[in-house]
Design a protein that fits this description.
Strand content of chain A: 5-15%
Oligomer: homodimer
Number of strands of chain A: 11
Radius of gyration of chain A: 25 Å
Structural class of chain A: alpha/beta
Largest interface: A-B, 152 and 153 residues
Distance between the termini of chain A: 56 Å
Strand order of the largest sheet of chain A: 1-2-11-10-8-9
Largest sheet of chain A: 6 strands, mixed
Shape of chain A: globular
Chain lengths: 544, 544
């Protein structure tokens, strides 16, 4: 493991820090007025996506500085190392090879062979399910699939299935993740045990939530009269722990593989995506993989200045590190992408929510921001007030498919108009004078207009990206998710982080076991803090 | 309108700013060790909720300072003014009287009479729908209700219906908000026009998204063979613009009222909640109102130090203003509350995402934080990594109903254990030495343990509230939402903000109209920035 350099130790750092001080002046509005080529200059195309980053608080000079930083940090070399399978996940001494899951060729031919055999099984099973050939215990064809998984075993498949609903077949896919029994219970409410298949997704086959829900699902089948043999027809597992899956009662031939070189948050491309393949069909799933592979080819082979994930990462570092933003808002203007912020929360915050670098040294600067957002236009009637007039810097990504699958083009134009208008509004703002003039136009008195104008004025100059695509297809969705994956990786390397481990979630699990013991046995010895003890008491005394 | 004082001008401010510098030491762990009464001291009960705030970074001294600040800011007087119907929404010269919507008595007897008559209609209609007495155009009973609204006309009803699913009747309620036609289209996919009722919620009856979806819904009925008279049987409106509703084709006697003294984000208690009343039944909806009224009584009549919304607000100001947090994470450990963060985003960010105070003076400090979160345990497999090991201060609210409606108590205990364990883990953290010892216990070599320990160590000392309730009922849900309403109000007043306007969303609407004109007519004159023009071109050239 090479010693990680602090971001602040790269030669270009000081110059960027100086430029950051004047990043807000001149304003974006002025920059556009002064430079007729700005919109053309600050845009990129790759793998079916177009990125307009001209509404970011950058100039040619600061962009050049950021690109120099990327060169000094050898981001190109880092990308090479990633693709070459170096053990970039150094704390776990593993490569991170999720790109192999969507690759059609690889130097790692052994691994690719395993991937291809998993793909072949996914293809066969998804076809069997979609054709009605997979029968439940009463010889009824399966009509509903329930994916039981959490984190990466849930967020990715859920997003893809929802986003690609226009491609959906007759088999309905449902997603259960929460250990709260209400989640499974409400999913099963309208389902028939005889025609329901469960996919248990857990790399370790030890995930508490997933196993608990899996056992409850099993019991639901048994309650419906299924024997052990019957039950086996209704369960599939995606796991690297086949033994544990068999102990659960899942046949070995009903198991699809996972590998230690795939992190949960990078696993939608693997058999974890089986429910998606069932929903949209294998050919579409293959296009989803191909879209991501196109972005892989782009990130690998494109010079830094034209490299979309690298650019997005540099803009993240600019906004978060140099301009001090502690959050990043993602606004997909497509109702099918409403889960995109939740998906990206795991991808970015689990990857880059670290306070030590890959060598274990405490970092002297902030790392991963809070990622949040919602589908537009929903947020316009909610938190956009804060985006426009709040005090915090909230860099935004607008994600905009330019065509709709609904056939309702006239209505869809309103969605397009709203998206484009929001990024423009964030940028241009409205001065107090402009607000006053608008109020006078509406017939307000001079005194009233003067009184209200400060409330209507907006600072503007708020930065955003707009990522467009012709329409949301399996291929463009694949490219979009791969874009954010590589962006997250590049940002991690600039900060010095290993984005592929997640040690921070371990201790909570251990303490969870201790608390559960206390709940189950009032006399269990423990020496927890008084607040925790009191919460446990409160739970106990609330039991009927 | 009294002149607003800056937070930083109150006498207690400087002392608090000094105390904030040492707020992280001694650690919470030490504070608990030194003070056996801490958990008991820092807790409160009100309206069926219990608040444990002992895991906040406060001492008796800082809490006393915060309470002094509340006294200096005359928060008690502000609350009195709110309830007295003073024109606290000064920019719109209106009172904010959403409490009246859940009141059983009031000095404003005229208004209460109107509210009571609206409640009576809600009761009648919800009973008619639930009993099958409300018939569609082919004399089929209504089985499905589609609420069409956005922002407050969507988020509140959606949350309440989902959260109180265990109380649900046979009528299914669906929610459509987004102007993206895919939202309505997927909601209608499995519905029968003959048995579907639409509720159009729009105070102004001019909301673009809502009217567009309303017209599309109307067309869906017409396509199914409904005449104009038929259509009228399938539409209800909640609006203060009855004329516009009638123009749309909704009968006057199918309109329920809204009032200018209710903001959208405070409107779930009004007829905007009709879909909830249909879903859970009138008696349960009345309990929901009563729960909120109990919190109103509490906030009105309780001294500051024991006043739950006031305390929560002071803690928000402590975390965001004095300790510098730019975000606030809300973690309901109840799957039914999964929309709570989205609901609270509107409530808090639309209310307090302002940069001027109520007098229009630019504020020299940060105001509303970014609110985000998800249902636990989902986030534990996603963004909790950043909560535990990231560099940002993310104050958390855990919301925990102590019993489940599912009957699956054993499984529910796991949910409880996880919630309690997370707040403890955030607080105690794990030192490098502790991490090293744990790794040696697992059999790692001395060198390996030393290398990995920094990655496993966690700083701890991360603040949280835990809000518990016996179970999630209509009454405790009402109390919970009212708690956040009053907390938002108190915080606004401490910062000097008017939380009841939302001028920041206006300009985007105007520009949206301009962009739509350009989309519809390539020759429309406009002089927008080059980025916006190029995005419009891109859309145009992507059209088939």
């Amino acid at each position: 493991m090479t010693e990680r350099t602090l971001l602040s130790s790269f030669p270009s750092y000081d110059k960027l820090a100086t430029l950051a001080q004047s990043a807000h002046t001149p304003s974006l509005k002025q920059l556009f007025a002064e430079d007729a080529d700005r919109a053309e200059r600050f845009r990129l195309a790759a793998a079916g996506l177009e990125l307009d980053y001209s509404k970011q608080l950058i100039t040619q000079e600061s962009l050049a500085g950021l690109l120099a930083l990327a060169t000094e940090a050898d981001i190109a070399g880092e990308i090479d190392d990633l693709f070459a399978g170096k053990h970039i996940n150094n704390t776990e001494d593993r490569p991170a090879l999720h790109m192999l899951l969507r690759a059609t060729s690889s130097t790692s031919s052994e691994r690719l062979k395993e991937v291809e055999s998993s793909r072949a099984l996914m293809q066969t099973w998804s076809q069997q399910l979609r054709s009605g050939a997979w029968l439940g215990f009463s010889d009824t064809p399966i009509t509903d699939v329930v994916n039981i998984g959490i984190g990466g075993s849930d967020l990715g498949p859920r997003l893809v299935t929802e986003a690609l609903q226009p491609y959906q077949s007759d088999v309905n896919c449902h997603y259960v993740a929460n250990v709260d029994p209400a989640d499974l219970q409400s999913a099963l409410l309208d389902l028939n045990p005889e025609s329901t298949l469960f996919i248990i997704c857990s790399k370790s086959f030890r995930t508490e939530e997933t196993l608990t829900n899996g056992l409850a699902a099993r019991q639901w089948l048994v309650n419906a009269g299924a024997s052990d043999d019957d039950v086996a027809k209704h369960f599939v597992a995606v796991t690297s722990n086949i033994e544990a899956a068999q102990d659960f009662g899942i046949k070995e031939r009903h198991c699809l593989p996972m590998w230690d070189w795939v992190g949960g948050r990078y696993s939608v491309w693997s058999a974890i995506g089986l429910s998606c393949a069932i929903s949209i069909g294998w050919d579409h799933f293959a296009q989803f993989l191909a879209g991501a592979e196109a972005m892989d080819q782009h990130v690998k082979s494109t010079p830094l200045a034209e490299n979309m994930p690298v650019l997005c990462s540099l803009l993240e570092v600019w906004n978060c590190h140099f301009l001090g933003a502690g959050n990043h808002v993602v606004l997909p203007y497509d109702n099918g992408l409403r889960q995109l912020p939740a998906y990206l929360q795991q991808l970015t915050m689990e990857s880059n929510g670290k306070r030590v670098n890959a060598n274990g040294a405490l970092l002297p600067y902030n790392t991963g921001p809070v990622l949040w957002g919602s589908a537009g236009t929903m947020g316009q009637h909610s938190f956009h007030q804060l985006l426009h007039q709040g005090t915090l810097l909230c860099p935004a990504d607008f994600v905009l498919p330019l065509n709709t699958h609904t056939g309702m083009d006239a209505q869809h134009r309103r969605l397009i108009a709203n998206c484009i208008a929001q990024s423009r509004t964030l940028m241009i703002g409205r001065s107090v004078d402009e607000a006053e003039a608008a109020l006078l136009d509406r017939g307000l008195s001079v005194a009233e207009a003067a009184r209200l104008a400060p409330h209507l004025s907006m600072p503007g100059n708020r930065p955003s990206n707009t990522i467009t695509m012709r329409s949301l297809t399996p291929a463009t969705l694949g490219a979009l998710l791969a874009l954010y994956e590589h962006r997250t990786f590049c940002t991690a390397r600039l900060w010095g982080i290993n984005p592929f481990d997640q040690w921070g979630v371990e201790l909570g699990k251990e303490i969870g076991v201790q608390v559960l013991e206390k709940l189950e046995n009032a006399k269990a010895v423990s020496s927890m803090d008084a607040s925790t003890e009191k919460l446990i008491d409160r739970w106990r005394s609330a039991q009927p």
